[in-house]
Amino acid sequence: MTAGALELDPRSAAQAPRRGTWQRPTPMRTVVVLVITAVLLLFMVYPAIYIFYGSFKAGGGMLGESSGFTLANYRRIFASGFVRFTLNSVLICAAATAVSTFVSVCAAYVFSRYRFRGRGVLFGAVLLGQMFPWIMLVNPLFVAYAKLGLVNSYGGMIFCYTAFTIPFSVYMLTGYLATVPRSLDEAATIDGATRFQVIWKIVFPIMMPGIVATATYAFLLCWTEYLFALAFLTRTEMKTLPLGLYQFFGDDRVDWGAVMAASAIATLPTLILFLPLQSKLTSGLAAGAVK
Amino acid sequence: MRGERLFIALMLAPAFLVLALFYLYPTLQNLAISLTDLSLLRLKVGGNWVGLDNYREFVTGPDFGHILFNTVVWLTLLSVALRMLIGLGMALLLDSRVLKRVRLSTIAKLAILVPWATPPIVAVVIWRWMLDGQNGIVNAVLKNLGIVDHPVAFFADLRTVWPSVVTIIVWNTVPLVAVSLLASLQSIPDELNEAAALDGAARWQQFRYITLPFLMPTITVLTLMSVFWTFNNFVYVWLATGAGPGTYTNVLATEIYIKAFVDFRLGYSSAVGMVMALVMAVFGIVYYRFLAPSELKDSL
Question: Which residues 74-113 in chain A show a CB within 8 A of chain B?
Answer without folding.
Answer: 102-104, 106-107, 109-110
